[in-house]
Amino acid sequence: MTEEIIIAGFGGQGVLSMGKILAYSGIMQNKEVSWMPSYGPEMRGGTANVTVIVSDERVCSPIINAFDTAVILNQQSLDKFESKVKPGGYLLYDPNGITHKPTRKDIHIYEIEGAKLASDMGNAKVFNMIILGAFLKIRPIIDDKNVEEGLRHSLPERAHKLIPLNMQAVQVGKDNVKQD
Amino acid sequence: MNINDIVKPENLVYQKSKLLTSKPFHYCPGCGHGTVHRIIAEVLEELGIDERTIGVSPVGCAVMAYDYFDVDFAEAAHGRAPACATGIKRVWPDKIVFTYQGDGDLAAIGTCETIHTCNRGENLTMIFVNNGIYGMTGGQMAPTTLIGMKTATTPYGRKPQWEDGTPNNGFPLQITNIISTLPGTRYVTRQAVNTPARVRNAKKAIKKAFENQMNNKNGVNFVEIVSNCNSNWKMSAVDANKWLDENMLPVYPLGDIKDNFELIKK
Amino acid sequence: MGELKLMKGNEALAEAAIRYGCDAYFGYPITPQSEVIEYLSEQNPYERTGMVVLQAESELAAINMVYAAGASGKRVMTSSSSPGICLKQEGLAYIAGAEVPCVYADVVRGGPGLGTIQPSQADYFQACKGGGNGDYHNIVLAPASVQEMADFVALGFDMAFKYRIAVCILSDGAIGQMMEKVVLPEQKARMTEEEIKAKYPWALSGRKRGTQHRVITSLDLDSAKMEEHNRHLQRKYDEITKNEIRWEEIETKDAEYVFVAYGSSARIAQKAVQLGRAEGLKVGLLRPITLWPYPTKAIDALIDKGVKGFLSVELSCGQMIEDVRLACNGRAKAEHFGRVGGIIHTPEEVLAAMKKQIIGE
Questions:
Q1: What pTM was computed for the model?
Q2: Which of A178, B157, B171, B262 could serve as a FRET partner for B88 with CA atoms 20 to 30 Å apart?
Q3: Quick one: pLDDT at residue B13?
Q4: Where are the domains of chain B?
């Protein structure tokens, strides 16, 4: 099994930390992983994306040009990465702020209203965990118990009390993702 | 009294410090470096710290100071002696570390290292020999060269500005006064070695600069020695010492500038 | 087994330094390696092990702190990225001349000049062919994973003190910024004053009365002595070349065409090998781990075994290719392929270049 994922959106949406939690969860499931960010000079805003590879074998190139799954959180990222999904692959996006939707017919397209659901939960910060839940529903590569372990390893100790809330958000994502 | 009486140990009135090697100085006759070396060696010997002292020599006339002092020494790149001393002192806080630099080294190419080492308040002793000229490279302008002073690169005299006001060679840099304003300097003083009385004062100042390092955990102890360069000033050693009195000291007046982290009000 | 973590290459390097018992890190921030000094500052190793971490006023000051602290027998390191490494060349030349052991990491970004903050391998010449003045070499290790970023700290310090030489850990923005699984070594104790004095008699640590005082310098105005010093350095480099060449080979057993790539390019080329093998091409990968000394003998042996051509894959306009060609010495075809400016070649591009430039379609 090798899953090559791009997660792309605005800086501040928790793109990099979602990737980190996914990668750590992969380690907990005895997988090989890599996490490769794009990095720019800006501290706030701007686009941020991260390539995460979860595999049963040693990861060769952490930098790739075609993805099994694209997780898209803004229009610029959709414009940039829709064409980079392998035929038969998956595209998951949050329709919030999307003015022209994905058009490809040779890939599986899913929607998750992450921003709205996070707002319903009363905590904008769990947005990225809702997205992670939606991703894991479509691509069940990691068990919930290992996601919880991944959270434990990637969050600082003082934030461990937030793990149940984060797992609840993962479940909300799983329950609400729908195919286009 | 004949020669055999004179050399008897009981008639000894003065001897070279044990911490100076027997290698003859390469310095020009009448240069201040030899005297400054001697009083540093005497101070290290009197304080009994030679087994834990590490010196850092500069680039300039004193580049081979390590040949003359019988203590461990590192030779620094031009201007970097304060960074080198920082490196040693940070990993060996119990050693006594000192730098020995000239004006080009400390106040031109190494100004950044000088200021930041002083500003961090490293627990060091810094000896700064200021003769207003580059010695080893052959008498070019130093940052401390006096206005009007002729050097190989200011053959018509140092001129801070042209007649029409455009900048030219700039002004004598008062580096010692600059670093005295930094909160990291504990003791800042300016001394000279061109008279016996001044040599005694300079030795007292250097001793204090080492004692401070031994007794404290932080604070730079900075001793400037106003010296001559008779060869590149192109005069005899005697004339150079007189010229120093008449020309250097009005610009670089002697005395303590800062003590125990307090600027001395004049 | 040590502790398993997910870390950035830069963080793994920093953590490995603490765990090795490194005495001091002197650095200056520059993208894409600022995580090294940030991580060290956050971890507060001064309380963990007594390790000193100092943000210097410049790269120049930092390398000169390394020079003198290394001269006093302590295990010290610094890190920077390309433009900062330019500034450090002054100190590195003194370190080579005065034979001071130390480790420095260069997380390479694109150039020349301020260039770009994106990954690059265009400082191969600077790292392997001098950089500073004089006839000298530093040992250059090229990690291709976060694990190796951590492992090469210990390897680097061991080599640095064995030969009294600077060891460069030459990575790039990709290896520095990416996160991977890493197994961290156990914490080692820092060396005591007695151990340093016993093990490194040359180290400046205060001379005992009645013994010769020690001097660490790169200066000698006596030409005959300076020539002999240079000969001595060259004999040392020969010894290192004899003992320390390291490389990895992947799928080379029956290979006819071989990618030569280090660091992040080696990861990409490894994927290209997989793609090529899937098409039935007999391709393999030679990954130099030491860039100086260069694994010339590995290329030689591959040619003996029947390899017909090599493609040097680098994030540069062609630097390591010179060493590949020297190793081939006309016996096999050798060409270069590489993207630059912060663009990273894809495995597909790399395989296409092999077909076009070496195999011929």
A1: 0.94
A2: B262
A3: 85
A4: 25-261
- B neighbours by CB contacts (3+ pairs under 8 Å): C
Do C and A make contact via 3 or more CB pairs under 8 A? The reply is: yes
Which residues on B lie below 8 Å from C219 (Cβ)? 63-64, 75
**Is the CB of C60 less than 8 angstroms away from the CB of B112?**
yes
Contact A60 C31 (CB under 8 A): no
pLDDT tens digit string along A16-75?
999 999 999 999 999 999 999 986 555 555 788 999 999 999 898 888 889 999 999 999
For residue C167, which phi and psi values (nearest 5 degrees)? -115, 125
- Domain annotation for chain A: domains and CATH numbers: 2-179 (3.40.920.10)
Tell me the residue type at C41. Answer: S
Task: For strands B96-102 and B262-263, give the pairing.
Answer: unpaired
Chain A residues within an 8 Å CB radius of C5: 153
Contacts of C225 (CB under 8 A, 6+ apart): none
- CATH class of residue range C3-193: alpha beta
Considering only CB atoms, B53 lies closest to which of C24, C94, C206, namely: C206
Which residue in A27, A36, A41 is closest to C6 by CB distance? A27
The CATH-assigned architecture of domain C248-359 is 3-Layer(aba) Sandwich (3.40)
Q: How far is B78 from chain C (nearest CA, A)?
A: 10
What class is the B25-261 domain?
A: alpha beta
The residues near B1 (Cβ < 8 Å, ≥ 6 apart) are none
Using alpha carbons, select from B92, B101, B99 the residue that is nearest to residue B52: B92
Each domain of chain C, given as residue ranges in start order, spans 3-193, 248-359
CB pairs under 8 A between A and C: 68
pLDDT surpasses 70 at C110: yes
Which of C38, C36, C45, C117 shows the shortest CA–CA distance to C78?
C36
Higher pLDDT among residues A133 and C346, named by residue = A133
Verify whether the Cβ–Cβ distance B74 to C72 is below 8 Å: yes
pLDDT of residue A42: 52
Predicted local confidence at residue C115, as pLDDT: 93
Global ipTM: 0.93
A110 at the C interface (CB within 8 A)?
no
Q: What are phi and psi of C178, to 5 degrees?
A: -75, 155
State the pLDDT at residue A41: 55
- Token duo for residue A8: 């792309």
> pLDDT tens-digit profile of A82-106?
999 999 999 999 999 899 999 999 9
